[in-house]
Amino acid sequence: MSALPRGLSVALAVALAAASLPAQAQVQAKLAAPESVGLSGAKLALIHEAVKVQVDAGQIPGAIVLVARDGKVVYFEAQGASDPAGKQALRTDLVFGAADLSKVVVSVAAMMLVEEGKLGLDDPVSRYIPQFGAAQSVRVLQAGSPPAPFAAVPGPMPPSKEWGEPRYAQVPAAKPITVRMLLTHTSGLQVYGVDNAFPRPGPGDTLATLVPKLAGLQLEFQPGTRWAYSNSVGFEVLGRIIEVASGMPLRQFLRERLFVPLGMVDTDFGLRPEAAARGLPFAPGLPVPPAGAASYTSASAGLWTTVGDYSLFARMLANEGSFEGRQYLKAQTVRAMASNQVGPLVMGGYPSLGMPPEGLKFGLGVAVVTIPEAAGTRLPAGSFGWDGAGTRRFWVLPAQHIVIVSMVPTIGPQAAPLQRTIEAIVMSSIVGQ
Questions:
Q1: Which of 400, 405, 376 is nearest to 388 (CA)?
Q2: Residue range 25-100+266-428, CATH number
Q3: Number of helices and strands (H, E) in the chain?
């Protein structure tokens, strides 16, 4: 075999080296000048100061922020520490628990199957999981009953000391739960912060073994009549539906259809072996699960990812379902996901979102800004995205072709002020606006 020309051999070596880098390292290497996509670099630099103010005030330990436009990353920086004690400097390549941002990935997977005719938005869940065909009941507080106790994380709660034990009446569900209701959090399954004794996954459980048990849960309201965040149950059901409709495990489907083709090399249900040293626990002392170690793959909050990886997914959505020559979703599907799918229903009861619900509506797996002034954001109407654990956040601004991804290494609503500031800075950076 003859030797390659020097220029070609160098180019090949560079390409191979780049392919072996983690996705976030490749993103850093490809950082584009903000001015090349119509943004002001001087304005975007204010993000650094905004993060510093919050870190110096003790509001957050640190943050990773990425901004992209027209598919090009123009700002990507990690500041501060990975925990409140400040023991480890935050780096852009750290792998976070994606928390509820997992739901958006699963939503896209479901919409892929809708496009293929393997799944219908208005199909009853029982078409895929027969146990949901049994009669379901809705629990309603009786007149004069004490309120149901609330917790930030659903789980068994003692009765209110002030008011006593809540009293419920049982009424039949008026209609079956549909796929659309799962995607829009209008199913009545497990309202955020209110426990209804749903079963938890045990050793050896899979979506196939656990989800049928959820069919026996009492619903919190009549399906389709309210919006209430189904934190830990609704998307588990959706994950199982994807498995049945696609004929493969959820982890395999996501890997083959999204993660590998998008180049999301660090995204999985747990830490991949090559990323084992870069995992950031949800809180100091908590374990970081290795990928594939557990049989159960939580569609609600089980993914682990990096800011760079998640930006690849977000940039695909910002480009109407296409990324680097490959079409993942049709443009009209992305537009449907990012449109109001709940009508007049109000997005109440999810305080970690950190935004007033009056200016938001819900699409298929994502929140949509409808009245920026009421939502308390500078983002334009039509922007869509979601929140994870109060501190993982992404936004797509379709008309501006902009993506914002930020992650803060804590759990709770304390990142909301920074998120609003980042949104304002990005909007102010648009040249000529």
A1: 405
A2: 3.40.710.10
A3: 14, 13
